[in-house]
Specification:
Elements lengths: L22 E3 L11 E4 L4 H11 L12 E10 L18 E10 L14 E9 L2 E8 L12 H8 L10 H10 L4 H8 L13 E2 L4 E4 L5 E10 L8 H10 L3 H11 L5 E9 L1 H4 L21 E10 L4 H6 L12 E3 L3 H18 L80 H11 L4 H13 L4 H12 L3 H14 L10
Antiparallel strand pairs: 1-2, 3-4, 3-11, 4-5, 5-6, 7-9, 8-9, 8-12, 9-10, 10-11
Bound molecules: NADPH dihydro-nicotinamide-adenine-dinucleotide phosphate (NDP).
NADPH dihydro-nicotinamide-adenine-dinucleotide phosphate binds next to β9 and α10.
Cofactor: heme
InterPro entries: Catalase, Catalase_AS, Catalase_clade1/3, Catalase_core, Catalase_haem_BS, Catalase_immune_responsive, Catalase_sf
Function: Catalyzes the degradation of hydrogen peroxide (H(2)O(2)) generated by peroxisomal oxidases to water and oxygen, thereby protecting cells from the toxic effects of hydrogen peroxide.
Length: 507
């Protein structure tokens, strides 16, 4: 390409005047200011090419995690964990792997404010020699649901009312209070961690339980923690609200500018591990996404560090088109039977096929460039850009196309895997007393730092002010399940901020 480049159509045809259009030239005698031209011509490909492409610039935004920012970086193994995991990219201390991380808010649209109270997505793609591994995490160690069928219901209530197109405190709290297994995550969300000061200053958690295998085929349940080397820093509710108005893209800019000035953010990577035997003795299910594994019983073990040190060159090509899925995994790492995780294995690639097309893995940001791909039956479809394997037979096992099959780590396995046998049943996870134990522990953790419990109370009270009084009453009751004092404090704060008909001052 010449420098400076010659302006062309999308087909490479040089164009002498990008701003001209082909029109019929007519004699405009008598019109002093009107140009001497008539209607446009359909043959003006330059104009049609430009307008038609412009009309198609937008792809569907992600239904969740629409607003995000990302960067490239490097992951380095710091400690040997080959006794737990045989993934090749972890096999040597000091080994480095290129990554791309995307942070996001969850409920807001693409133009929404970065500082909104919301969990944050924290997804990382590792370009490994065994294919791409996606660790698709959040900045909270737990989640609102554990029955995957609830997900669309739950998300709808956190988005917009179908009639008014407004966020709706009644919908928001109606759902949550009717599904009290959400309480642990709701307490986390309404603590100051619900409004992080920066993407750089928050932790990432797998939340789900995974299964990692060593080279002998022995496996353990694993949870992963990414702990920020920048520390955890949060905004107070009014600071977050102010920022949403003054600089709604603050977190996006904060990440970009930090990397541009060489202030590279980094995270230490840890695992918690649990054996099958241990999982039978804990007072909750290892597949319950609303629970954490207590640190004292399942201590963190360090294994790596990653640093983000390179901004994408083009937001749409990289950050918008990056396609993460927990089903993009590598030998040595498998999903557990956590039902929410199992449903995500389907839902994420399904979204990418819808948003980006069936060949989304051919988009450079999603290509497993380090491993290469040889799946001769995965051919054709919209937007093939990689040569489509030329004349290679389009099935495996062709006489003229010998294929090697890898020997999996599990093939030499010595430990029995999980066994399941039973009837097919409609399962809906029942709420039990233990579901409120960890929220109670969380309230205690907040009590270790001055002002944190008060923030939780204020943040909830401020949010429910616009809800109907009967919904507010349900919210008081809901938080009281963790500790009666929480519901009471929220009630008092609501009465103070906006006296109701039953407020003490009015009785
Ligand atoms: P610990 O006392 O060992 O751990 C409590 C953890 O809470 C800390 O390590 C820290 O995790 C996190 N934390 C500290 N201050 C705050 C805060 N102001 N806001 C939010 N989180 C904070 O106890 P347990 O492991 O037994 O957990 C007790 C409770 O702590 C749990 O019920 C859960 O609600 C919460 N928690 C537990 C986590 C876990 O994985 N065990 C992780 C986060 C919270 P970190 O270093 O990851 O920030």
């Amino acid at each position: 390409m010449s420098n400076p480049p010659v302006y062309t159509t999308s087909q490479g045809c040089p164009v002498s005047d990008p701003f001209s259009t082909q029109r019929i030239s007519v004699d405009q005698k008598g019109y002093q200011y009107a140009p001497p031209t008539g209607p446009l011509l359909l043959q003006d490909f330059k104009l049609i090419d430009s307008l038609a492409h412009f009309d198609r610039e937008r792809i569907p935004e992600r239904v969740v995690h629409a607003k995000g920012a990302g960067a490239y970086g490097v992951f380095e193994v710091t400690d040997d964990i080959t006794d737990v995991c045989s993934a090749k990219f972890l096999d040597t201390v000091g080994k480095k792997t290129r990554i791309f991380t995307r942070f996001s808010t969850v409920g807001g649209e693409k133009g929404s404010a970065d500082s909104a109270r919301d969990p944050r997505g924290f997804a990382t793609k590792f370009y490994t020699e065994d294919g791409n591994l996606d660790l698709v995490y959040n900045n909270t160690p737990i989640f609102f649901i554990r029955d995957p069928t609830k997900f669309p219901h739950f998300i709808h209530t956190q988005k917009r009312n179908p009639a008014t197109n407004l966020k709706d405190a009644n919908m928001f709290w109606d759902y949550l209070t009717a599904n009290p297994e959400s309480l642990h995550q709701v307490m986390y969300l309404f603590s100051n961690r619900g409004t992080p000061a920066s993407f750089r200053k928050m932790n990432g958690y797998s939340g789900h339980t995974y299964k990692w295998y060593n080279a002998k085929g022995e496996w353990q349940y694993v949870q992963v923690h990414f702990i920020s080397n920048q520390g955890v820093h949060n905004l107070l509710d009014d600071e977050a609200g102010k920022l949403a108005g003054e600089d709604p893209d603050f977190h996006t800019g904060d990440l970009y500018k930090a990397i541009e000035r060489g202030d590279y953010p980094s995270w230490e990577c840890y695992i918690q591990t649990m054996t099958l035997e241990q999982s039978k003795k804990i007072p909750f299910s290892v597949f319950d996404l609303t629970k954490v594994w207590p640190h004292k019983d399942f201590p963190l073990r360090h294994f790596g560090r990653f640093t983000l040190n390179e901004n994408p060159k083009n937001y749409f090509a990289e950050t918008e088109q990056v396609a993460f899925s927990p089903s993009h995994t590598v030998p040595g790492m498998e999903p557990s039977n956590d039902p929410v995780l199992q449903s995500r294995l389907f839902s994420y690639p399904d979204t990418h096929r819808h948003r980006l097309g069936t060949n989304y893995s051919q988009i450079p940001i999603n290509c497993p460039l380090k491993s290469g791909v040889f799946a001769p039956h995965i051919r054709d479809g919209a937007m093939v850009v990689d040569g489509n394997l030329g004349g290679t037979p389009n099935y495996a096992g062709a006489y003229n196309c010998p294929v090697q099959y890898a020997v999996g780590a599990k093939a030499s396995g010595s430990k029995p895997d999980e066994k399941y046998e039973g009837e097919v049943v409609p399962f809906h996870w029942t709420v039990v007393d233990y579901d409120f134990y960890q929220p109670k522990m969380f309230w205690k953790v907040l009590g270790r730092t001055e002002g944190e419990q008060e923030s939780l109370v204020k943040n909830v009270a401020g949010h429910i002010l616009s809800a109907d009084e009967f919904i507010q009453d349900r919210v008081f009751e809901y938080f009281s399940k963790a500790e009666p004092i929480i519901g009471e404090l929220i009630r008092k704060e609501v009465h103070k901020l906006s006296p109701r008909k039953d407020s003490p001052a009015r009785l």
